[in-house]
Structure formats: C-alpha cells, structure tokens
Amino acid sequence: LSSLGLMEELCLDVVTSVEGNNFSDRLQVYPNPVIDQFHCVLPTGFMNKKITLEVVDAGTGQVKWQEEVLVNEAKITLNSQDLSSGLNYIRVFSDDAFAIKKVIRLD
C-alpha cells in the first residue's frame, strides 16, 4: 500500500467506528427551546458509567461548560445559564460512544 492508500484505509476505519457509536438519536434533550432548566435523558446503557457533558456555543465553537459525571440516573438536569443565547450544542461522550444535540436558549 502507498502512504496515501494507508491513510484512506485508516480514515475509513475511523468514520465507520464513529458512526456505529453515535447515540444522538437516543439522547433526549427537553424542553427545547430552553428558558431556565433543561434535561438530558440518556439511554439505559449509560447507568453507572462515566460520561463527559459539554455545552458548546454554536456561533464560536467555544466550550462554555464541561463536566465529567458518573451516571446514577438516566435524567440529568442542567441550568440554561451555561448556554449562550441562541443556538448551542450539547455533547455527551464516554470512552466508546458520543452524541450531539442542538439546543436553543431563549432570553
């Protein structure tokens, strides 16, 4: 294999792996749009696992808030003060899976 062929093969493996571990369709975030508090409901497979939650400003890409959490209940309640006004992303990831959801904060 040429170095370019090896790079293409490695990239293909990474993309396939990421798609298989994306649980965005099973992560619930409500209410959306948000005024005060909002909730993230994780799939049942995350009980007693360590995850990282991030709030990202969609306009700047800046991580506004980040915390590692040991999941002991499926619903996690967050305060909207960590969100920028307008569009934000909630990123949730563990050692082997990730999810991203859009959240809108209203003033």
General description of the model:
The protein is an alpha+beta fold and 107 residues long. It has 1 helix and 7 strands. The strands form 2 sheets. Strands 4-3-6-7 form a 4-stranded antiparallel beta sheet, with no helix packed on it. A 3-stranded antiparallel beta sheet has the order 1-2-5, with no helix packed on it. It is globular.
Distance between the termini: 56 Å
Helix content: 10-25%
Describe the main β-sheet briefly: 4 strands, antiparallel
Broad shape: globular
The helix/strand order is HEEEEEEE
Query: How big is the Rg?
Result: 16 Å
Quaternary state of this entry equals single chain
Count the E strands: 7
In terms of DSSP E residues, the strand content is 35-45%
- Uncertain runs with pLDDT below 50, 5 residues or more? 1-19
Order of the strands making up the biggest sheet: 4-3-6-7
What number is the mean pLDDT? 83
Helical segment count: 1
Helix/strand class: alpha+beta
Keywords:
alpha+beta; 7 strands; 107 residues; 3-stranded antiparallel β-sheet
What does the secondary structure layout of this molecule look like, with pairings?
Layout: H1 3-20, E1 28-30, E2 37-41, E3 50-57, E4 63-70, E5 75-79, E6 86-93, E7 98-105
Antiparallel strand pairs: 1-2, 2-5, 3-4, 3-6, 6-7
Brief sketch in words of this structure:
The protein is α+β, with helices and mostly antiparallel strands and 107 residues long.
